Amino acid sequence: MELEHKGLTGKVIWPFDPGYEQARQEYNRAIDAYPIAIVYCYNNQDVANAIRWSEKHQVRVRIRSGGHNYDGYSTGTGKLVIDTTLTNQIEVDTINDVVKVQAGTRLRKLYEVLYEHGYAFPGGTCPTVAISGLVLGGGIGLSTRYLGLTLDSLLEAEMVDAKGKILVANQRCHPDLFWALRGAGGGNYGVVTSFTFQLKKKVDNITLIQLQWNNNRPARLKFLSVWQEWLEDLDRRMGAFGRVYKQGALLLGFFYGKPAEARKILEPILSIPGITSEDIEYVDFIEAVNTIADIYPKSEKFTDTGRFVYKHLSKNELSNIIEILDHAPSDYNSLIKVYSLGGAVSDVPKSETAFYYRKANYILDISSSWEENHEAAINKAWVAEGFKYIKQLTFGSYVNFPYSKLKDYEMAYFGQYVKVLQNIKSKYDPCNIFSFPQSIKPL
Ligand SMILES: Cc1cc2nc3c(=O)[nH]c(=O)nc-3n(C[C@H](O)[C@H](O)[C@H](O)COP(=O)(O)OP(=O)(O)OC[C@H]3O[C@@H](n4cnc5c(N)ncnc54)[C@H](O)[C@@H]3O)c2cc1C
Fold first, then answer.
1. Going by C-beta distance under 8 Å and a sequence separation of 6 or more, which residues neighbour residue 159?
2. For ligand 1, what atom is nearest to the CA of residue 402?
3. What is the pTM of this model?
4. pLDDT tens-digit profile of 212-239?
5. Which of 34, 80, 152, 318 has the smallest number of CB atoms closer than 10 Å to its CB?
6. pLDDT of residue 68
7. Given the CA of residue 106, which atom of ligand 1 is nearest to it?
8. Which residues have any ligand 1 atom within 6 Å of their CB?
9. CATH topology for 205-345+355-393?
């Protein structure tokens, strides 16, 4: 198809441009899409022009910031990708404790700039995830139980809508859109170009926790069993992610307090026999953030999805999960992951934002990654099989850990909010300009 440049502004990369091969990549290298072009926007006008251009040329758009969507919903073959990467300014207002962040900002930079001013931030753990996808779907990390979801700190969002108009959404202007953006905003209502957050906490040192039971299969069942008991009355200053794999288990955590107190709180976990590495240290907040961030590769090939757990799982159910792991294709890269919730997440009234699953205890996730393309099928099949079982134990899926095989995905991500969200979609994007395989449909 011959398409004219005219009307598209920003840095536009076409398939015949030398940078195209790099520009079409997502973090998940198992996604292999060929967009019609990628437009890197410098400002709201470039975004508006891209939306109008796509309408004129009957080309569908996809919105991309960090490109970390598990299933590649920020790109697509034959689509125009509107990419916000080049907008990454951060303005900190230390008088009012607020920060304005442009859409393409990656988490490592955000954490670092905020920490220069002494602030903690409740973001996620991967340094290359962009603020946009993270906050629009929720935002879960090791500070979440103490400071809330990333979206709980959001005061305002600026968005370019389906007509190319700039809207500001907050509690007073477009409150319905503001509500929807906090939990269901990823790719659905328009291109959000900046976010303003309340900064809740000044910080210096925290306790960073890294524990592992490697080559210790018996620790796995014990870990999952202790984990759910431990979360029940857990001090909200503690947040943790756990991973259980074929050969063992590990736990990463932040505690907003001193190591001695952290150790006391961690007692049930530390008493799981056969620990192979135990690191509990008092470090700068930013060192803690970067130590966890450095665990992530620059890119990988994977399939991954996560669901909300509300109930205690029985010993039998936990044993079944371990059995799933025993059949995993990889010793170390096929994982059952757990992410702590509760604390500040469940304090916020459920109806306040479109994040439906506030009262869950934790997220239970299954994932597998691989190196060679020929390994994709076996890894995907393992996740698909394991997911069938995990789905029975859980209630709803985290939209930021999406899964293309989910049936009735709107219900799974947004529960009883689906109708309201569809109504808001009809109001702000009646022609469904912003759509992708698991987008919210207008009524
Ligand atoms: C390695 C890894 C680690 C992760 N760790 C965590 C974690 O600790 N906690 C957590 O909560 N999540 C985590 N995630 C999930 C992550 O939050 C989501 O993948 C998130 O949506 C990624 O945002 P992005 O902007 O980087 O990705 P993108 O793929 O660019 O976008 C994700 C979705 O948001 C939409 N979108 C992007 N930018 C905009 C915008 N400006 N306006 C409107 N819609 C937009 C896209 O269309 C797409 O649907 C992780 C993901 C990966 C791959």
1. 166, 167, 168, 169, 177, 181, 189, 190, 191, 192, 193
2. 19
3. 0.98
4. 999 999 999 999 999 999 999 999 999 9
5. 34
6. 98
7. 26
8. 27, 62-69, 73-74, 84, 103, 124-126, 129-130, 132-134, 136-141, 185-187, 191-192, 296, 400
9. Vanillyl-alcohol Oxidase; Chain A, domain 3 (3.40.462)
